[in-house]
């Protein structure tokens, strides 16, 4: 292939790292004020992503050195290749930073971030390999052999990253240490919460387990707002909702109005979480609100306010409300 054509191809390939750098800047500006806290969950796939990204940084640097010392092309093609591989090295470095950035802030990886960059690089690695093995002038040298090996390894690494981007895109959420998160068969364990009641057959009562699966701090205007993702597993159906501490407080006030001490002296509402530290850590808040939910999900509190809070509707809602009527 003529050098003029090679120059045009590498010039077009330069658009990939350039577009990613622009996307990275936009994502960073949009999310840099998002809060972060200590994470306690590190998945194997997240570790694999980090290792593969580091490898791609190393491979890009080797490509840059090969392009710099190679003398088989005209200066225009040589400079185009050096520019492309240098920008790819920078892009992969930013990709690693974005991976850590999203992990620390529990940001769901958007399509314009690492997802498209990793999958697009599988395509660009294939183009470079095709050029190297079929079109570019070949000579036996240490740089040429290194370039060929690195291209093959780069394709394999990008293939792994592309698969993770599609099937395991988000490994950045704080996962609760609840022992009932998953059963050995990857289905949610059901926890019977109903009290023994000799007046009715409890074998047909709905079963529930409610817990906070993850949390995130989001900057809205000049205020940082904590969001908890609450997962309710009821009779095999999983319901996910986002709630803030203010939503918890409104629920507690609603239940206090529903069950005043004067009218229900024997009924004890769970103590609402209070914190001495200012501000309390996300870890501490999750534990406190998880405990509150665990104590709250009992038959005597299965009222409209709790159903609205958990967004339980339809037939399942009616069944829970019926359970409240039986024990009230």
From TrEMBL:
<feature type="transmembrane region" description="Helical">
    <location>
        <begin position="82"/>
        <end position="100"/>
    </location>
</feature>
<feature type="transmembrane region" description="Helical">
    <location>
        <begin position="6"/>
        <end position="30"/>
    </location>
</feature>
<feature type="transmembrane region" description="Helical">
    <location>
        <begin position="42"/>
        <end position="62"/>
    </location>
</feature>
<keyword id="KW-1133">Transmembrane helix</keyword>
<dbReference type="InterPro" id="IPR036871">
    <property type="entry name" value="PX_dom_sf"/>
</dbReference>
<dbReference type="GO" id="GO:0035091">
    <property type="term" value="F:phosphatidylinositol binding"/>
</dbReference>
<keyword id="KW-0472">Membrane</keyword>
<protein>
    <recommendedName>
        <fullName>PX domain-containing protein</fullName>
    </recommendedName>
</protein>
<keyword id="KW-0812">Transmembrane</keyword>
<feature type="transmembrane region" description="Helical">
    <location>
        <begin position="148"/>
        <end position="167"/>
    </location>
</feature>
């Amino acid at each position: 292939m003529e050098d003029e054509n090679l120059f045009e191809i590498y010039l077009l390939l330069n658009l990939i790292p350039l577009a990613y750098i622009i996307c990275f800047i936009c994502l960073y500006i949009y999310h840099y004020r998002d809060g972060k806290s200590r994470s306690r969950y590190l998945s194997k796939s997240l570790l694999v992503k980090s290792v593969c990204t580091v490898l791609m940084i190393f491979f890009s640097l080797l490509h840059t050195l090969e392009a710099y010392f190679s003398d088989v092309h005209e200066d225009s093609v040589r400079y185009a290749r050096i520019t492309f591989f240098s920008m790819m090295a920078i892009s992969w470095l930013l990709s690693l930073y974005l991976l850590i950035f999203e992990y620390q802030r529990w940001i769901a990886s958007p399509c314009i971030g690492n997802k498209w960059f990793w999958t697009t690089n599988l395509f660009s690695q294939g183009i470079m390999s095709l050029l190297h093995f079929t079109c570019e002038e070949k000579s036996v040298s240490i740089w040429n052999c290194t370039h060929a090996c690195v291209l093959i390894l780069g394709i394999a690494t990008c293939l792994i990253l592309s698969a993770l981007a599609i099937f395991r895109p988000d490994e950045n959420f704080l996962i609760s240490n609840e022992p009932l998160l998953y059963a050995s068969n990857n289905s949610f364990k059901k926890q019977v919460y109903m009290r023994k009641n000799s007046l009715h057959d409890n074998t047909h009562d709905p079963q529930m387990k409610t817990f906070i699966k993850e949390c995130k701090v989001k900057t809205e205007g000049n205020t940082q707002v904590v969001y908890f993702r609450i997962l309710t597993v009821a009779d095999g159906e999983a319901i996910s909702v986002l709630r803030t501490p203010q939503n918890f407080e409104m629920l507690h006030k609603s239940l206090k109005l529903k069950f005043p001490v004067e009218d229900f002296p024997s009924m004890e509402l769970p103590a609402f979480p209070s914190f001495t530290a200012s501000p309390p850590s996300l870890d501490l808040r999750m534990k406190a609100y998880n405990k509150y939910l665990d104590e709250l999900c009992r038959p005597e509190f299965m009222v409209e306010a709790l159903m609205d809070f958990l967004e339980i509707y339809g037939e399942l809602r009616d069944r829970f409300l019926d359970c409240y009527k039986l024990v009230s």
